[in-house]
Amino acid sequence: MLRARRGTTTVALVVALVVGVLAAACTGPAPSPAGTSSSTGNPATAGVAATVAPVDPTLPGRTTDDVARLTVDALQTYWRTALPGRLGTPWRDVTTIAPVHVDDPSAPQPPCAAKAADLRGNAFYCPAADAVVWDADVLLPQLRERFGPAGVVVVLAHEFGHAVQTRIGVDEAQRADPAAHPTILLEAMSDCYAGAVIRHLVDATATGGPVDLPMRAAERDAALRALVTFRDPLGTLAADTTAHGNAFDRLSAVEDGYDSGPTACAGMTTAGRDFTQRRFGSAADRARNGDLPLDRLVPAVSGDAKAWFEGLVAARGIAGYSAPDPRPAPPCADAGPQGPVAYCAADGGVVTDLAALGALQQRSGDFAGATLLVSRYALAARAGATLSATGYDAGRSAVCLAGAWTARLVDPTGGFGLSPGDLDEAVAVLLDEDWAETDAVGTVDPADNGFERLGHYRRGFDGGPGACGI
Ligand SMILES: [Zn+2]
Predict the structure, then answer these.
(1) Which of the chain's termini has less CB crowding within 10 Å, N or C?
(2) Cα 42 to ligand 1 centre (Å)
(3) How many of the other CB atoms lie within 10 Å of CB of 329?
(4) Residues 6+ apart with CB under 8 A from 88
């Protein structure tokens, strides 16, 4: 999106439809008498490119059913300790574990659904039967094929998160006070619990413990990519009864569980959590679900970024800093590999590779390119503020400042505003590429990956530029 700064034009930065859809909706089947709680959400179609090879060298010879069984065992084991230890509630193993063969006409009736075929594309937790149920023919094999075992892990961990909620009384609390427990909050809690489980597997793997499901940085990023495919369709509002969250909000919840554990998940409230989904700015905004041409995108974003970063530098007491206009040429000889946009320390410029930006836009949407562009303006501003534009910390600061710049566009007071999908596009480029974190000579901390980049971005998004070292 992006509503234009001046005039009446409304333009849209939009998502390219790049991901193969994972089967159908995942909102759970028709409600059982007591209702089915949850599900992972709807696989949507944008944002994250399907360019990442499945990460599955670790479980050779295992079928997807094997992976699901190992995952369930790991989840039951984890919660047997974590629920009493962290939340003071005894864990009861989930009563019914139900892989459903949706392609088998003779399959028995699954829990909380009329027939097996109704489960196609679904995974859910049904509190009435205390059952975790999933499509074993389509959904999980596709997740495993695209994302490796981590795709299976994150989806089942999310559903177990709903079982945790049932055990600690969240279902009753929701019945007593529905307004304080909207769907999107309960879904965020489940994503958060999934993050806690991922952390457990990462730690166990790192310490050489006996883990059936090794989880390293690559698998962790694969889990995030898998969950992102279940983000809400564009235009969903946080208040919608089916809302599960956009990619940014869902991964933020995972990160909170990863960093702070199950106690933080259980303590989530609507008051303490900002959900970033907003409606389209206008009918035209909605209708223009197409890409904003680069010849409009680049000047629009850079114009806004220039003014914002000039203000930041001035606030540090440095007068006279003037941010550059972007230029497609000449290239910068010493910039190193920074991706489609480079900050040129030699002359203080920002250099765009329009062909590469166009390719990125096709893959991940226009706001992916906007995020990179702003991260380069961040390096330029650091140099203008006499801070280093090289080194790992400069790269982290650039990602952080891109988050800080973006946050003010969620509820803008005028000029620009985000449209649905923009944050998902930022998430896509941060997960898929390290470009936003490169410094002025194209280097980046090799230990950082998608998970860390999202963390840096979110630090600025939540904390503002002051959290970014400028
Ligand atoms: Zn759910």
Answers:
(1) C
(2) 10
(3) 9
(4) none
* CA 359 to chain centroid: 21
What is the residue whose two structure tokens read 């220039």? 306
Residues lining ion ligand 1 (Cβ < 5 A) are: 38-39, 187, 190
Q: Tell me whether strands 326-327 and 349-352 are parallel, antiparallel or unpaired.
A: parallel
Q: From the CA of 229, how far away is ligand 1's center (Å)? A: 14
| Span 102-137, pLDDT tens digits | 999 999 999 999 999 999 999 999 999 999 999 999
User: How far does residue 467's CA lie from ligand 1's centre (Å)?
Assistant: 32
Q: Are 420 and 235 in contact (CB under 8 A)?
A: yes
Dist. CA 250 → ligand 1 center (Å): 11
| H or E element at residue 249 | helix 247-260
- Name the token pair of 395: 């790269």
Tell me the domain boundaries of the chain: 64-266, 291-468
Task: Work out the angle at residue 281's Cα, subtended by the Cα atoms of residues 276 and 283, and round it to the nearest 5 degrees.
Answer: 135
39 C-alpha to ligand 1 centroid (Å)? 4
The b-or-e profile of 118-155 (16+ CB within 10 A means b, else e) is bbbbbbbbbbebbbbbbbbbbbbbbbbebbbbbbbbbb
* Amino acid at the residue 232: D
Task: Tell me if residue 242 falls in helix, strand or coil.
Answer: coil
Which residues contact residue 63 at a Cβ distance below 8 angstroms, ignoring those fewer than 6 apart? Answer: none
**Confidence band, pLDDT 50/70/90 cuts, at residue 163:** very high
* pTM of the full structure: 0.88
Q: How far apart are CA 217 and CA 45, in angstroms?
A: 25
Q: If you measure from the C-alpha of residue 276 to the centroid of ligand 1, how many angstroms do you get, rounded to a whole number?
A: 18
Per the CB < 8 A criterion, the answer to whether 329 and 362 are in contact is no
Read off the tokens for 335: 């910039």
- The single-letter code of the amino acid at 444 is V
Ligand 1 midpoint to CA 205 (Å): 26
Sign of CA dihedral 46, 50, 51, 56: positive
Residue 193 Cα to ligand 1 middle (Å): 11
25 Cα: distance to centroid of ligand 1 (angstroms):
12
CA of 44 to the centre of ligand 1 (A): 15
∠ CA 397-422-387, nearest 5°, is 15
Please report the pLDDT score of residue 8 as a whole number: 28
